[in-house]
């Protein structure tokens, strides 16, 4: 390895300008890949295309003309006024003209089944909007007394109307939502109309991701500039490390663009991570380069020694960091898998740029006069010298305090719960949350479960099973009144029997059912097309869900699946799907993937450390600081009731991937000093006071880089930012307290290894 690093320095020293030109050309190539980047906040896209839950969702989407809806909440003083109804009517007509919209359901477009001589007719609930107060009052009484309308398209108090816009499967959702907003603006309804629904939430997430990237990226860069200037106090100490991260970010995101990998709510932070981590190797190399120059060595000799000793450590840390993030590749969630894999790729790119472009510039530039100053101790170095004296003198005390802290953290771990409350990705008080709350309070929720039934839908046994299932669903706390072809058939039967309530029941025979369905089809029922396939072999039951909490949704899913087993039992093929089911599936895979990735990351790093140190004991000692940090992370989550969601699920892997670097750099310098004949106490003190500075600046850069996420528009990402910043502090402190204390106790009787 040492020879490889020496040869690398010689090679870069031979062709520095050629290397710089080649990297500039490659950067230009990847820059054009940025134009191909897409943003995706769609829950469905977070699951594998082969996932059975996603397959079922896609089948419903195709069979019934769209599984996604945009919901428009019309907050009015009185829905049943001539002015309000005309606004709703005009809005409905304009929405139907939008490309990508399948159907629009509103109070002015709602269907009513009426009996006529020889059959039925399907008419609009409000065919003509009257001006008479008496007629309007009559319509109000009729609508609010019918369960098919109240709580479905108009609130119980008659003050809020809901318009349901069904979006076609292959439609451009973003464009559809944009056109809906344009219609609302044109009709001057911005102040009284609010948008929600799964299609709207997906689009809003995409917009937030784009806005956050444009805001957080420059902020992270500013933080890095401040840290680098504070660390090195000259222009090159700022510009050269920043050059590494700029090139790294362009290459990584450009590669994602060329490969068609979208930016998700998690990979949204990838540029911030690469900026925070990308300067790490640069900081360690510059710090050691300065130290070598201050000892009187010439530029080439100083760089060669720096790359041989620190460059080798950087190579090892890059491998371990890539392993930490790469472990996320075992996740079944595409958003976590792509985040982990491309962060690992970015770390590898950062190392390549560091030992080529960065080294080439250092070889071409003359050393700065500040770098040639000898025996000048900084305030930080003086503090670390005192810290080293304390750790060596009080090694056992340090370990006892660390043990008590870990014990306290461990007691909080059982309080962790897995949640995926997606509505919390939106700021409280914002229009998205406001609309969601209105729909939840008045219409049973903005999200929809779908139960697809496959079989001979005209069979009375299947219809009765659907009816029983709907009755049970109506009793589940977080579900609203379900609707399906059962509702249409009962209303048809009632209409055919002069509107008598006792006839609002299902037809008794298959022949009657076929006749009723034919009448509905001839009558032009639009609702029928959304509930039943043209061949009468697929039916759909839909019910709104009033919460985004995955724990409550998981309980609901169990109840619904139990009812399906109870009533169907082989009568038909039944599949439960919808966005809530996709989200719960995601939570289950997230928890499973978290455990797998953590185990894989720790095992990989342990094996690598054993190989590097050539000692089972040293390998175990080096992973203790990061293991303690992971326990602290989960302990904080437990004690502060921070849920395990799509944001917090990746924190532990980030901590392992980045935090192990500190232990590796510390151990590498410690072994170097021992090899030079230093006593254990001397080796530890030199390591803490010299490498400790680079660790401090590195942890500060990474921690503050992540801390900028507190300014993200999505609250879970803000929480993720301060948690990672805190764990970086823990990890760096553990590497400069717990690790040296363990090494001192292990090696104190040795003079050299």
How does this model look, in words?
The chain folds into four domains: 1-36 and 234-376, Multidrug efflux transporter AcrB transmembrane fold; 66-202, no CATH class; 377-411 and 615-753, Multidrug efflux transporter AcrB transmembrane fold; 444-578, Alpha-Beta Plaits. 64% of the residues lie in helices and 8% in strands. The protein has helices at residues 2-14, 16-33, 52-63, 82-96, 133-144, 173-186, 198-232, 235-259, 270-294, 299-326, 334-364, 379-393, 395-410, 431-443, 460-474, 485-496, 510-522, 526-531, 550-567, 579-613, 616-639, 651-675, 680-707, 715-736, 738-747, and strands at residues 68-75, 101-105, 111-116, 119-124, 160-167, 193-196, 447-454, 538-545, 573-578. The strands form three sheets. The chain has a four-stranded antiparallel β-sheet, sandwiched between helices. It has a three-stranded antiparallel β-sheet with strand order 8-7-9, with helices on both faces. Strands 3-4 form a two-stranded antiparallel sheet. Strand 3 and strand 4 (119-124) form a beta hairpin. Helix 10 packs across helix 20 and helix 15 (460-474) runs antiparallel to helix 19. The model has no long low-confidence stretch (mean pLDDT 87).
């Amino acid at each position: 390895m040492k020879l490889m690093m020496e040869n690398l320095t010689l090679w870069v020293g031979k062709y520095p300008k050629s290397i710089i030109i080649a990297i500039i050309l490659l950067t230009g190539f990847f820059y054009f890949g940025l134009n191909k980047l897409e943003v995706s906040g769609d829950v469905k896209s977070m699951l594998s295309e082969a996932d059975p839950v996603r397959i079922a969702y896609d089948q419903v989407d195709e069979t019934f003309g769209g599984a996604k809806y945009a919901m428009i909440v019309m907050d009015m003083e009185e829905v049943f006024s001539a002015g309000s109804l005309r606004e709703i009517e005009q809005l409905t007509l304009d929405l139907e003209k939008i490309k990508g919209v399948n159907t629009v359901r509103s109070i002015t477009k709602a269907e009513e089944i009426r009996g006529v001589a020889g059959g039925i007719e399907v008419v609009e609930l409000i065919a003509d909007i009257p001006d008479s107060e008496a007629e309007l009052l009559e319509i109000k009484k009729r609508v609010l007394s019918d369960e098919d309308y109240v709580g479905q398209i108009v609130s119980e108090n008659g003050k809020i109307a809901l318009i349901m816009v069904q979006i076609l499967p292959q439609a451009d959702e973003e464009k559809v939502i944009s056109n809906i907003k344009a219609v609302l603006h044109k009709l001057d309804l911005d102040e009284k109309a609010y948008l929600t629904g799964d299609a709207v939430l997906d689009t809003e997430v995409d917009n937030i991701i784009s806005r956050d990237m444009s805001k957080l990226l420059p902020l992270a860069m500013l933080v890095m500039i401040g840290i680098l200037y504070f660390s090195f106090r000259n222009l090159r100490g700022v510009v050269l490390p920043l050059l590494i991260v700029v090139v790294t970010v362009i290459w990584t995101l450009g590669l994602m663009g060329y490969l068609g990998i979208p930016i998700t709510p998690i990979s949204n932070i990838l540029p911030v991570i690469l900026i925070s981590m990308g300067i790490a190797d640069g900081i360690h190399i510059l710090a050691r380069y300065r130290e070598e120059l201050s000892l009187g060595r010439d530029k080439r000799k100083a760089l060669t020694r720096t790359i041989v000793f620190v460059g080798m450590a950087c190579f090892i840390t890059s491998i371990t960091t890539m392993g930490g993030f790469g472990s996320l590749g075992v996740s079944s969630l595409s958003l976590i898998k792509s985040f982990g894999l491309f962060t690992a790729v970015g770390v590898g790119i950062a190392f390549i740029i560091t030992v080529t472009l960065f080294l080439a510039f250092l070889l071409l530039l003359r050393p700065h006069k500040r770098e040639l100053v000898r025996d000048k101790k900084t305030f930080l170095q003086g503090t670390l010298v005192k810290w080293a004296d304390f750790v060596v003198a009080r090694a056992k005390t340090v370990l006892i305090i660390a043990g008590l802290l870990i014990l306290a953290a461990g007691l909080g771990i059982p309080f962790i719960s897995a949640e995926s409350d997606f509505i919390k990705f939106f700021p409280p008080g914002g229009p998205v949350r406001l609309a969601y709350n209105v729909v939840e309070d008045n219409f049973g929720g903005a999200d929809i479960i779908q139960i697809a039934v496959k079989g001979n839908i005209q069979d009375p046994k299947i219809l009765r099973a659907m009816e029983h299932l709907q009755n049970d669903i109506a009793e589940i706390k977080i579900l609203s009144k379900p609707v399906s072809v059962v509702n249409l058939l009962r209303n048809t039967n009632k209409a055919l029997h002069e509107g008598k309530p006792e006839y609002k029941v299902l037809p008794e025979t298959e022949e009657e059912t076929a006749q009723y369905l034919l009448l509905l089809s001839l009558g032009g029922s639009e609702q029928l097309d959304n509930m039943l396939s043209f061949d009468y072999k697929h039916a759909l039951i839909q019910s709104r869900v009033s919460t985004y909490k995955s724990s409550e949704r998981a309980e609901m899913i169990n109840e619904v699946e139990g009812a399906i087993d109870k009533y169907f039992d082989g009568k038909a093929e039944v599949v439960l799907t919808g966005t809530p089911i996709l989200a719960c599936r995601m939570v289950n895979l997230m928890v499973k993937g978290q455990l797998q990735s953590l185990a894989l990351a720790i095992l990989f790093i342990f094996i690598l450390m054993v190989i590097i140190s050539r000692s089972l004991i040293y390998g175990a000692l080096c992973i203790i600081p990061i293991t303690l940090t992971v326990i602290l992370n989960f302990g904080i989550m437990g004690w502060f009731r921070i849920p395990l969601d799509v944001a917090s699920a990746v924190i532990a892997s980030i901590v392992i991937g980045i935090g192990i670097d500190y232990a590796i750099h510390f151990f590498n310098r410690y072994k170097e000093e021992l090899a030079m004949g230093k006593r254990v106490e001397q080796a530890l003190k030199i390591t803490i006071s010299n490498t400790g500075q680079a660790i401090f600046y590195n942890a500060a850069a990474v921690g503050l880089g992540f801390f900028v996420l507190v300014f993200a528009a999505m609250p879970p990402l803000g929480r993720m930012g301060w948690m990672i910043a805190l764990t970086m502090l823990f990890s760096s402190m553990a590497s400069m307290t717990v690790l040296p204390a363990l090494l001192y106790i292990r090696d104190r009787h040795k003079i050299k290894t």
